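Title: Prediction job returns without error message
Component: structure pipeline
Severity: low
Priority: P3
Assignee: unassigned

Description:
Job completed but the reporter wants confirmation the result is attached to the right record. Sequence as submitted:
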Amino acid sequence: MIIKKSSLKAAFFNLFLSLGVPISALFISIAIGYFMMDYDLSKALKLGTLSGFIVAVVFSFLMAAVLLLMRKARSARTEKSKPESTITHKHENGMLDKTFILLMDRVIALEVLVHSVIEQKLGNIKHGDKDKRTITVYAPEHTIDISITQLTDHTSEVKIKANTYSPSVKKIINYTKMKESSFLNY
């Protein structure tokens, strides 16, 4: 991903300002406290404000540069690894009965699955039994039944049943696994 110079400058400036204000207040107060040991209050305020501001600007500039470089490196690493390419789909003919485990609790897993259908516009959703956490997706090609069961406090099992292994099913699985990966990386 190539980042434009103007957006890079804007990101740096935004990061610099958001770091600079609280860091300036911190360094100015520390410098005023330091200079109050040797000088009277008015001179300590002047020296502390000036020196604290200068140190804070330099420190904020360096921190913004380091954080921006780390952010670029992380996005490059994520783009290079392409998490969606690690998901393999076996070509199956006939009925689909797929089970996989998500490292998220049942409520979040249900929300992620619902959002995968809504955001990708794969069909209409009908919620089934709320205790069993089941949903039915009415896609143009066929009907997809999805049930979520809680395994532990932070893991859940998803079962997908459909007439065929369609692109809609692949999109739901890819989206869900990508969200799981982004939650784990966050």
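Comment from assignee: result matches the submitted record. The radius of gyration is 26 Å.
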